[in-house]
Amino acid sequence: MDYIQAIWLALLQGLTEFLPISSSAHLILMPVLLKWPDQGLAFDVAVHIGTLIAVVSYYRQELLAMAADCLGALKGNPATVESRLVWYVVIGTIPAGLVGISMSETVETMLRSPIVIAAATIVFGLLLWIAQYFAKEDRNKEKITWRDAVIVGIFQALALIPGTSRSGITITAGLLFGLNRETSARFSFLLSVPLIAFAGLVKTADLFQSQEPVMWDAMAIGIVVSAIVAYLTIGWFLRLLDRVGLMPFVVYRLFLGVVLLWIFL
């Protein structure tokens, strides 16, 4: 993998991580369509770390408030919306963490297929449309419960299938169970923090123990570029979500899925 490929993949990751169109699918498809060597899951994790930096930076004030309120609650202060949200994020992370630990090898070797991506892109795109069409959107962040955290967390575990979209499936779950669009997106983004951080730590440890050469310079470029692009994309997506909703992404997913089936079947 050369630097040009690393930059393009990082741009793609930064743009797609927080959009409901599956960044992992696009990271797999670009090398296939452009006849590039597969960059491997290690580089994918590196650019995900870049998007982790972006979401932490974007929500830094909220994350600090959550941490402060959580510490206060542990010391005996009354629970607040923000302190409860910390535990909801923890609860919502557990299902995907357990599935990821038990199935990481399967994901890395068996599911990185254009046909799998096409099927997941279409199926979960339709589910996203259904969720928006029937959404009541009658609950905001103050009305999130531990049941919502469990349900959204279980849905998030499905995102290990390339083409599903972690942000897409968690926003879908939030809408299906009554959360409004803003709250669903916000909770989805917060859920990405521990999951990406954990995956990054595990993969980095593996890389340090690997006997194979590692392109640390290309990975560093990927982290920086994806962080900048993802930070800009978060704000743009939230504004677009408020104005036009999710239908543009549903249409894109269906179009992409059909094109992939036409190319690879």
Describe the structure.
The protein is mainly alpha-helical and 265 residues long. It has one domain. It is 79% helix and 0% strand. The chain has 11 helices and no strands. The protein has helices at residues 3-16, 23-34, 40-58, 60-74, 81-110, 114-134, 146-157, 166-176, 181-209, 216-244, 247-264. The longest helix is centred in the middle third of the chain and has 30 residues, at 81-110. The protein starts with a helix and ends with a helix. The mean pLDDT is 90.
Set down the secondary structure blueprint.
Blueprint: H1 3-16, H2 23-34, H3 40-58, H4 60-74, H5 81-110, H6 114-134, H7 146-157, H8 166-176, H9 181-209, H10 216-244, H11 247-264
Helix pairs in contact: 1-2, 1-3, 1-10, 3-9, 3-10, 4-5, 5-7, 5-9, 6-8, 6-11, 7-8, 8-9
Q: What is the helix content? A: over 70%
Strand content: under 5%
**Whole-number tally of structural domains:** 1
Helical run tally:
11
Q: Please outline the major beta sheet.
A: none
Give a short summary of the structure.
The chain contains eleven helices and no strands.
Features:
single chain; mainly alpha; 265 residues; 11 helices
